[in-house]
Amino acid sequence: MGPHHGREPSRKRETETDTERGAEPVAPNLVEAFLRWNKEKMPLKKFGDRPSSDVVVRLRTKNGRDDWFYCHTHIITRECQYFAERLSDNWPTLQIIDSRNCVDVYCDESEVDHYVNFLRLLYNPNTSENTLYGVISTLGILQVAIVLGSKRIACDCVEYLEAVPWEEAEEEEILRVLPKLGPQAEPILARLQPVDSAAIHKVFVAALHLATAFLPSSMDQPKTTVQEQLEYMLTEDDDAPLLAADEHIKDEVRKCLQSLFSRLEEDIEKSSLHPLEGETETRFIKTLSDLSWICSILPRLDLMKHFAETWLNISNKIVEATGIMKGSEPGVLELKLKVTEVMAKVVEAVGYGVAVLPVDKRLDLVHIWLPFVRKTKPELERSEKVGSRFRMREELCETIESAFVTLVLALPSPSQANILTEWLKTEESKFPDLSEAFEVWCYRSKAAKRKLSLGSSFATTSTS
User: Fold this and answer.
1) Which DSSP symbol is given to 322?
2) Which of 169, 352, 355, 397 has its CA at 20 to 30 Å from residue 148's CA atom?
3) How many alpha carbons fall within 13 Å on the CB side of residue 75?
4) What phi-psi label fits residue 333: left (phi over 0), alpha (psi between -120 and 50 degrees) or beta?
5) Closest alpha carbon to 108 in 61, 171, 165
6) What's the gap between Cα 293 and its chain centre?
7) What is the pTM (predicted TM-score) of this model?
């Protein structure tokens, strides 16, 4: 006894000295080592493995469906509040075959697959997009996770749905379901949240500058897409326009218009000095295309009058420049067609009162552009016979005719008479056909005295 006690302190001090020197402990914690060894050696519990299971989850529906799934208590209670409560000592459980506990879960027939997938995910502690099942299925699993109380699976579903792309039908389903799921699901809707007006203005201005810039041909498709979306932003359909046409927006559009018309005048000047070819030709055509496009948004901004006045101011230059372009080369024909398209939009806007101009300017519009379009249409038709794809489509011809008829009929009667006289003298193509304007002018002229006398009588009666 004595010797034993005499040696023990010495060994203790030696041990402490070894530890202080940083040596490995003599023995690790035996309990931790055993648990680690036991966990590694235990067979992996699998969902639906009947021999190793100790609980049955029964999925039951109103239609009488009753599906049994063999599970393991320590797995399904680890991250699911519902199962943790039902399998606790505070909750009476039903024991069935082989002395296993039984937990009933009630759901609709359409939800059964979502519940089964949820049970599978309880067995997978590392949920990833490979273990989820697409947008609609993950949305269903998310609903189950929230109902049964699994924060981990719910968070994994939210993270997945927030990150992946949605088809339109999937987005509609998300919008239908998510309001019922509470704040936990709110991050999914981040991409659909309304944007403040300042951000919308920045996007619109940036897109407008891109839509009216002279860009290489490789950018044609992106530029077309941007132009389409700008129109959509200003369109009032089932929803209000994305932004209001305030003065800030109008000022930006005016700047772009000024830039486009400056480009057009530069193109006209270059075409008069050099043959129309190469980059000069491409730039001229693209400038006209941009002017044609911007006409589609100007009426929504009440700026079509500004466009019509500016176009009219340089109309003589445009007609003169295109008049000296001879031949049937594709570039020349395309350019003349583009000029015609822009002209048609201006005449239509003025003729129908979208852009209100005084009489003298409306007369100038007719005198400058009626001869141009009368001459240009046969040129394009002749080129069509040799296989050119540039021609005035039927829809464009109808627009031009209707616009000129309306424009002429809004002029004073003597001016109408002069225009119709010139039209009737023309031995070439009668396009645009002003027969309707001639018919109305004849009727009005014949009935003018009677109608004016009736108006005078009415005025006299009203005064007395």
Assistant:
1) H
2) 169
3) 23
4) alpha
5) 61
6) 19
7) 0.71
